[in-house]
Amino acid sequence: MISLRPILRASCARSVKMTPTSAMRLFATPRPFSTVPLAYDLHEPAKPIADNKTSPIIVMHGLFGSKKNNRTISKVLARDLGRSVYAVDLRNHGESPHDHRHDYTAMAADVADFIHQHDLKEPTLIGHSMGAKTAMALALSHPNLIQNIVSVDNAPIDARIESDFARYIQGMKKIDEASISRQAEADKILEPYEKSLVIRQFLLGNLHRPDSNNNVQKFRVPLNIIGKALDHLGDFPFKNPNEVRFLKPALFVRGTTSKYVPDEVIPIIGQFFPKFELVDIEAGHWVISEKPEEFRQAVVSFLEPKE
């Protein structure tokens, strides 16, 4: 099998065409794409076990999230494990650049580029939901690049994205059209599309003022790009575990009241990730925010050096 490093290390100015037959087998949709440089926050421990380039942790958010959502857990893991934690914004989210392509092959390539650009050695990938599939895709496409992964409430399967997300985009577009200046106005517009205040606050966290001389707030996320990507954002780029596996440790954390990782997909997880561990936490899909202490314990137990 050919090395994918030249593909994954492509600069953001260069278009990458995955034409080799073996590369086409690895990814379901071998379309041309360019990588983008990812915005990040670096959380360094008070008592580091190594420099911030060695065995760092890269934390990746889910759909409509950003690095700021992972600020608290990143600081806690840096403290408890003595490892530097890079919380990144995936493409089309937060402060990272926008790109017309939004799928797991491209997002995994962005993270691989990030690892190379920052000269990181044997990082751990932690991803929630969309970030989890990004972590899994990178682990399978280039296992030598990383040490292990933590997948939070997602699995290496094709699955339909819940219709809630399409509804959220409709409401968010209404807000952009209304040229609101206060978050309370935005919340009132979004309420018919989502009754949960917590979820509305999460979505409205994407608002910002693009013009410092104007109070009008707009969404950072490119709603048209994300909207077009929704139909395929539940897909996973690898279909056949007989062709590619990640033979290093992997932790899968799932919420017991979430539908993203049903019992019937556990054998598939084991086929792609033979050394996986499964931890169930009594929570919904938003495991990290719902049960942060239980999640911290699970990750620390998994990542602590074994005697």
From TrEMBL:
Pfam families, A to Z: Abhydrolase_1
Gene3D superfamilies xrefs: alpha/beta hydrolase
Secretion signal span: none
InterPro entries named in the record: AB_hydrolase_1, AB_hydrolase_fold, Epox_hydrolase-like
UniProt keyword list: Hydrolase
Keyword Transcription among record annotations: no
Ranges where the AB hydrolase-1 domain occurs: 56-292
GO cellular component: mitochondrion
GO MF, one example: carboxylic ester hydrolase activity
Family annotation (SUPFAM superfamilies): alpha/beta-Hydrolases (SSF53474)
Keyword match Hydrolase: yes
Family the entry assigns: Belongs to the AB hydrolase superfamily.
Name used for this protein in its record: Alpha/Beta hydrolase protein
